[in-house]
Design a protein that fits this description.
The structure holds two protein chains of two kinds.
Chain A: H1 2-11, H2 13-50, E1 56-61, H3 67-75, E2 79-96, E3 99-109, E4 120-122, E5 134-138, H4 140-143, E6 152-156, E7 161-171, E8 182-187, H5 189-198, E9 204-212, H6 218-227, E10 243-246, H7 247-290, H8 292-300, H9 305-346, H10 356-378, H11 386-390, H12 413-424, H13 426-455, H14 458-462, E11 471-474, H15 482-490, E12 494-507, E13 510-517, E14 528-531, E15 539-543, H16 544-550, E16 557-562, E17 565-575, E18 584-588, H17 589-593, E19 603-608, H18 614-624, E20 631-634, H19 635-679, H20 681-689, H21 694-732, H22 746-768, H23 776-781
Parallel strand pairs in A: 3-8, 5-7, 13-18, 15-17
Antiparallel strand pairs in A: 1-9, 1-10, 2-3, 2-9, 4-7, 6-7, 11-19, 11-20, 12-13, 12-19, 14-17, 15-18, 16-17
Chain B: E1 4-17, E2 20-28, E3 31-33, E4 37-42, H1 48-55, E5 63-68, E6 71-72, H2 78-88, E7 89-93, H3 104-115, H4 119-132, H5 137-140, H6 149-161, E8 167-171, H7 179-194, E9 198-202, H8 206-209, E10 214-219, E11 222-228, H9 237-250
Parallel strand pairs in B: 4-9, 4-10, 7-8, 8-9
Antiparallel strand pairs in B: 1-2, 1-3, 1-5, 5-6, 10-11
The chains are: A alpha+beta, B alpha/beta.
Bound molecules: adenosine-5'-diphosphate and magnesium ion (MG).
Chain lengths: ~775, ~250
């Protein structure tokens, strides 16, 4: 039995190698995907646990700090414990890879004894004695910023530079990634004192870390009320705002991408796996026909059907086993790459040892699937009686119907012959069609992701829910800004301006972040996925997650509270949004004034005419209106920076997926066409004898596969177009996106489908080129 | 005597299998005449088939020259040879080599449509020829596996004739047929020759050989002798004994 299995493997060497490679790919992807899915976030959670990370933190400028805050913290039942810490902050330019970035830094005393939200060094450290301004900086700078131990870390402040030396890299929960605003730098006590001296007076900050019975964002809201630093905006005047965030949000922000991507990789590996199984089935069915006589003679010398079937099952299980094991081992080589891919977002140093559990699962899963499929496919051998088998399987060459008779068919001869073989080899055609459907489906998915992350990024921008203006000006709340706003609105570079402010309200005990806008027609980022934005003072649109939490629908009314003032609004629409885990709502200015009559807009979104850069425009504004506003931000730049890490992850994974798909197409075609040529050797020899050229026969075979390829690609692309958004909605639901609305660009998908078809054609022509070696003469001389 | 349609000069064919060289055709200078029914005889393994396939451009010689009318064919590329064959040569094999996956009519048309773009005309011609060899309409749509050996061989002959080739090459066409079916197939070939097409047939069967008007006897890769018989007439006893004497002389 074993002997038979290995004899078969040896006999069909090329096919075995092809199948082996496919199992390697599938095993690699599944194992890598599962490692990321189960261990990446897990690795991160374990870290936050080890560091005793608090449920939330907030940073209060020391100038705004008062004893009232401590009283509030002590008196709040919901707070189980808290810890206060002194730190310094600054805004500085820093080199990151090849670019200069502007980042907010927090400086800590590394020697201070702390119990909550601790930090640790990752990897080796250098001795700090004799080092010039030694510092421990976030691991992100090593993983994606291009810094190494002992390097100089130069912070460029407006007035001066601070030159630190990297003594080690750190991991912590709040201050490790750029997307969470602050980067933490830990300095030995002496250095901390020295650096503090270099920073301006007002850079001193009070940090509060707190644990709660029932985590919510009430602390932040209260602290802002107490300090009167009421807007959540990080402005260049950092001293004017209270920063803070809760751990749940940080967790999500840091691991969401890895989670989504790992699910994609797993799904993708299952598609490759399906292709493998289809090929195994095909191979077995084929060999039953090819080896009919051999089966017969084995049976006639006394082998039982079960023995012969076992040898087939063993043959393919062995290939699957070998391929999967190799794939699993190779997957560990990809870990540094994957880790690097997510590093900038997660700030997590991922050190993955061999995971026997996941490896075992991958192997067992694949082996079982292959065994079941090959058992079912080989079952037919039971029915072959030794005598019919020995007679050479008359059964199999039983052509019943002559499809497309040549005397009636129109069209060019190779084309007609090709179609004849498509119909005649219906099973094979269906198989190719199914495989190409799977391939086209995945690549459509990849293309959509690629398009949305690299070419038109507006949909990804909606994920965090931010408004896509070009510049943003924050005004002084206690002044009449009408004149200033009019002047800006009349500038030739400006297309339009609109006020959009965020306030915090409550619905029962839930804190809700509420966007307030005069006219939603002016909004560029439309977050409504059902219903519409509010138009009148009594209307409200609410986040989909929020709606589910309070069990409300469009048409219901909802009571919102601001400082004990309750107002009822009518729900007109549901929106996406990740702020506060989707606890968001939208009101008109009139609507919000019902609860807070003193409210005055201060955040002006500025939209520029096509082709005008925000950077230059902002320089102009700074000159022209100096002193008349509180802060001015380059949204273009912020967005670009925010997107760049998403872009690099999604585009790289998209490209890898597309390349892997092309690879699979080529392998499968090689496999099928090769078998087909072997099977049709006699037919091809006869055709050559009567005067067909190699090229005609290459075309005949290749074109014969095209209908199934084109059908498969079409079905797959359509399925992809129809299901990418629903699938992504499921994947991103946790992040507050209720309904993914990725742009599906038909032109690009058609282009890609065309590329798949063309690749298939070229591949097929390349493989069939070996027909030249089949000569008419070998036919007659054999 | 008419002019030569095929002429070889120093034709050699050597096979090397496993390092051992076997010279199958040795410096052959042969002329085949237009309109002849040429028969190549000889013992099994003498190199008859090898010669036939070299003459028809199915295989390339190792050395030497082959002129087919005014064309030198031994240097043509494989694809050029294919195009050459479809117009000039018709093949009939002992094993028939019909395409299993096509009906009889399609088998004929698969060759016919390769040359003629006039579908209607070629379909007409195919049907005509099939009727001529005694294959009635109810057989046209059948597959080769559903035919008797004789029927299949006649279908194969029709396929060989569909493009009106200059020469019909037949390699032991009766080899796998019973006597009656064999005679029917030979009758068809004789008629073909009578209508003016050249026929070259390899056989080691006396009954088949009688059909030819010129017999080449082959042994160990060389032509040992030639016998001119004149056109075939059934029941011509003098012709028959002349052939017998020749074969005896050759050591048959
Ligand atoms: N493709 C080939 N490779 C090696 N030897 C061959 C090949 N074709 C024919 N031969 C050898 O050449 C010799 C003549 O073969 P063939 O022409 O078929 O003889 P015949 O048709 O006269 O019986 C035989 O000994 C045969 O083994
Ligand atoms: Mg022979």
């Amino acid at each position: 039995m074993k002997m038979l299995a290995f004899a078969n493997i040896r006999k069909s060497k090329n096919n075995t190698v092809t199948l082996l490679i496919m199992f390697i790919v599938a095993g690699l992807l599944l194992n890598a995907g599962l490692l990321v899915l189960f261990n990446y976030s897990g690795n991160y959670s374990k870290m936050t646990e080890d560091l005793n990370s608090s449920d939330m933190y907030c940073a209060i400028p020391s100038s705004g700090y008062s004893s009232q805050i401590k009283e509030y913290l002590d008196g709040n039942d919901n707070i189980t414990e808290y810890e206060m810490r002194n730190a310094r902050w600054c805004l500085a330019d820093i080199k990151f890879r090849d670019e200069i970035r502007e980042e907010y830094f927090l400086f800590y005393d590394a020697d201070e004894q702390i119990t909550m939200s601790k930090w640790k060094t990752a990897g080796e450290t250098l001795p700090v004695r004799d080092m010039e301004l030694p510092a421990y900086i976030p691991i992100t700078y090593k993983l994606s910023g291009g810094y190494e131990l002992g390097d100089r870390f130069e912070l460029k402040l407006p007035e001066r530079s601070v030159n630190l030396t990297i003594a080690g890299f750190t991991q912590d929960s709040y201050f490790n990634v750029r997307s969470m605003m602050l980067m933490g730098i830990y300095l030995p006590h002496e250095t901390y004192r020295e650096v503090s001296g270099m920073l301006p007076e007002d850079s001193e900050t009070q940090l509060v870390f707190a644990n709660m019975k029932k985590p919510d964002s009430e602390i932040l809201t209260h602290v802002r009320e107490i300090t009167k630093l009421n807007d959540a905006l990080v402005t260049k005047q950092f001293k004017n705002s209270v920063m803070g965030i809760d751990l749940a949000m940080v967790d999500q922000g840091r691991t969401m991408m890895a989670d989504i991507m790992s699910i994609m990789i797993v799904v993708f590996s299952l598609i490759v796996m399906t292709v493998c199984l289809i090929v195994v089935r095909f191979r077995i069915k084929n060999s039953i026909e090819e080896d009919m006589q051999k089966t017969g003679s084995l049976k006639s010398v006394g082998y039982t059907s079960n023995q012969i079937i076992s040898s087939v099952v063993l043959q393919f299980s062995f290939i699957a086993f070998l391929g999967t094991i190799t794939g699993i081992l190779l997957s560990y080589l990809t870990i540094p790459f994957i880790s690097g891919l997510f590093a900038e977002q997660s700030g997590v140093l991922w050190e993955q040892g061999f995971d026997a559990g996941i490896g075992l699962f991958t192997v067992v899963f694949f082996l079982l699937a292959v065994m079941i499929v090959s058992l079912i496919a080989a079952k037919r051998m039971k029915r072959i009686s030794p005598i019919t088998a020995l007679r050479g399987g008359i059964l199999t060459h039983n052509f019943r119907k002559n499809f497309i008779p040549l005397d009636k068919a129109r069209g060019r001869l190779p084309l007609v012959l090709a179609l004849k073989s498509t119909v005649q080899n219906a099973k094979q055609s269906i198989m190719i069609c199914i495989i190409l459907t799977a391939v086209a489906f995945s690549s459509t998915f990849a293309v959509v992701m690629f398009y949305n992350s690299v070419i038109d990024t507006s949909t990804f921008a909606k994920v965090p829910g931010s408004e896509l203006s070009n510049a943003q000006m924050v005004l002084y709340p206690d002044r009449d800004n009408t004149d200033l706003v009019n002047k800006i609105g009349n500038m030739s570079e400006v297309k339009k301006t609109a006020f959009l402010d965020y306030v915090t309200m409550k619905s029962d005990r839930t804190i809700v972040s509420v966007g307030v806008m005069e006219d939603y027609e002016k909004k560029e980022t439309n977050l409504v996925y059902e219903g519409r934005n509010p138009q009148h003072g009594n209307e409200i649109a609410i986040g989909g997650h929020f709606a589910e939490a309070v069990e409300k629908e469009i048409g219901d009314s909802i009571v919102m509270t601001y400082q004990d003032k309750k107002v009822e609004y009518l729900i007109t629409g549901l929106t996406q949004g990740v702020n506060l885990n989707g606890m968001v709502a939208w009101l008109t200015t009139d609507g919000y004034k019902k609860t807070d009559p003193q409210f005055q807009h201060i955040t002006l979104e500025i939209y520029l005419e096509e082709g005008i850069g925000a950077a230059g425009f902002i320089k102009n504004l700074e000159k022209e209106f100096e002193g008349q506003y509180r802060n001015l931000m380059d949204i273009d730049l912020l967005f670009e920076e925010g997107m760049s890490s998403y872009q690099s992850i999604v585009s790289q994974i998209g490209i890898i997926m597309m390349a892997a798909m092309a690879f699979i197409v080529i392998l499968v075609l090689y496999f099928v066409i090769n078998s087909s040529i072997i099977q049709r050797k006699r037919e091809l020899g006869i055709q050559k004898a009567i005067g067909y050229t190699t090229f005609q026969l290459m075309n005949q075979i290749t074109i014969g596969f095209m209908p199934s390829i084109i059908t498969g690609v079409t079905i797959g692309s359509i399925l992809g177009i129809l299901s990418t958004n629903p699938l992504m909605s499921v994947g991103m639901r946790a992040a507050g996106t209720m309904k993914a609305e990725f742009i599906i660009e038909p032109g690009l998908i058609i282009l890609f489908s065309g590329i798949i078809v063309l690749t298939s054609y070229v591949t097929s022509m390349a493989i069939t080129y070996r027909i030249r070696k089949i000569s008419a003469y070998t036919l007659v001389s054999e | 005597m008419t002019n030569a349609i095929i002429k070889t000069e120093k034709l050699c064919k050597t096979f090397s299998t496993g390092g051992i060289q076997q010279h199958v055709l040795k410096n052959l200078n042969i002329e085949i005449y237009e309109g002849d029914y040429t028969v190549i005889m000889g013992a099994s393994g003498a190199g008859k088939s090898t010669l036939l396939y070299a003459l028809s451009g199915m295989d390339k010689p190792t050395l030497g020259q082959i002129r087919f009318r005014n064309e030198t064919i031994e240097k043509l590329s494989n694809d050029k040879l294919a195009v050459f064959r479809r117009k000039n040569c018709g093949f009939v094999f002992q094993q028939m080599f019909l395409l299993d996956n096509m009906s009889i009519l399609d088998n004929v048309l698969a060759a016919g449509l390769l040359v003629s773009k006039d579908r209607k005309k070629i379909v007409e011609r195919a049907k005509d020829l099939l009727l001529q060899v005694g294959l009635s309409e109810k057989i046209w749509r059948k597959f080769p596996s559903q035919l008797s050996g004789g029927e299949a061989q006649r279908a194969a002959i029709v396929r060989a004739l569909i493009n009106e080739p200059k020469v019909v090459f037949a390699d032991e066409p009766t080899g796998s047929l019973n006597s009656a079916a064999g005679t029917a197939a030979l009758d068809v070939l004789t008629r073909v020759n009578e209508s003016g097409q050249s026929v070259i047939m390899v056989t080691h069967d006396l009954r088949s050989a009688r059909r030819g008007n010129r017999i080449l006897y082959m042994r160990d890769g060389v032509i040992n002798g030639t016998c001119e018989l004149g056109k075939y007439k059934s029941g011509d006893a003098e012709r028959h004994s002349k052939l017998k004497a020749f074969l005896e002389e050759m050591g048959w």
